[in-house]
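Suppose a colleague, Dr. K., hands you the sequence of a protein chain of 390 amino acids and asks what its three-dimensional shape might be. Before reaching for any lab equipment, you can write down a predicted structure in token form. Begin with the sequence itself:
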Amino acid sequence: MPDRAPQPVDRTLPTEEARDLIALVREIVQREIAPRAAEEEEAGRFPRELFSLLSESGLLGLPYDTEYGGGDQPYEVYLQVLEELAAARLTVGLGVSVHSLACHALATYGTKEQRGEYLAAMLGGGLLGAYCLSEPSSGSDAASLRTKAERDGDDWVITGTKAWITHGGVADFYTVLARSGGEGARGISAFLVPGDAEGLSAAAPEKKMGMKGSPTAQLHFDGVRVPDARRIGDEGQGFAIALSALDSGRLGIAACAIGVAQAALDESLGYATGRRQFGRPIADFQGLRFMLADMATKVEAGRALYLAAARLRDRGLPFSKEAAMAKLFCTDTAMQVATDAVQILGGYGYTADFPVERLMREAKVLQIVEGTNQIQRMVIARHLAGPESR
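The predicted structure, expressed as tokens, is then:
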């Protein structure tokens, strides 16, 4: 029905190289991602070949140094790439964000020898990563994780279960946070674990409301042996590494959320200008016009918020509070805009024949992953008012 084709987002980009990069992403989206997104999500098919293509195209290592095969792009640009990918298919956009999150520990805290040995393959060698922090009984309270890493000579032996792992069972490497010492945050270390390590297995993927094409699974570590050379950072530094990664990862989620919201807005505009009732397009009716205006305003505000946080990061300035704000606002926006899109399409919006019902289901998870929005409010409040009284 839509007779109004979505218009590309008019982006302010810092360089000609960045403009060329966005053009490349849009070409890949139109040719390889968007035409099959609905069908493959409904079938629950993980598009591994797409991630191979993105790796070959240099899109899996954009924010990292060219010395190790990265794209050396500022976060301001990288996040807009994520937004374009997520607008076409969240499984792909979120997958790239998770892969970047999995690379963060090694790229930021690894030794020169570790980066030289592993990082180039992780960034541009066709590999796909996953990030392992959450456990069945430690989600928001990540510092209480129970997976153990015990020293055995020059090795570490990892035992335990990780939960809610995006790319669980299909990743080539995992950044794993495990307890190597005493209780609390200071007893946690980070490890780079190969996906084919002996003793590592994945449970059946979770049956989810949305993002059916993205596998989310528990990982079981049954005495997985990892050389000390694969420990990232100092012993006991793992939780600090995890928090650092999550600050950046939350910006990735924010950008993906605005991609979903933009897609829902585009679908709403196309439908409202093409659907006629009472002899004229329903976009003529003030009730819907105001809904569309509010949706567009929230999308633009969310985009501005995540880009402002990204620019702080690019300048080497603190951005933890701003990342939490962006994640909170952008994911709430995605949920609201997707819900409004279903309302604008009416009965059609509730059917799988139109993409807004999928976008609504996908938007929900963004309010949960990488720190629920209740946790984001706690983070923001601590920056504003200090820690809670005990």
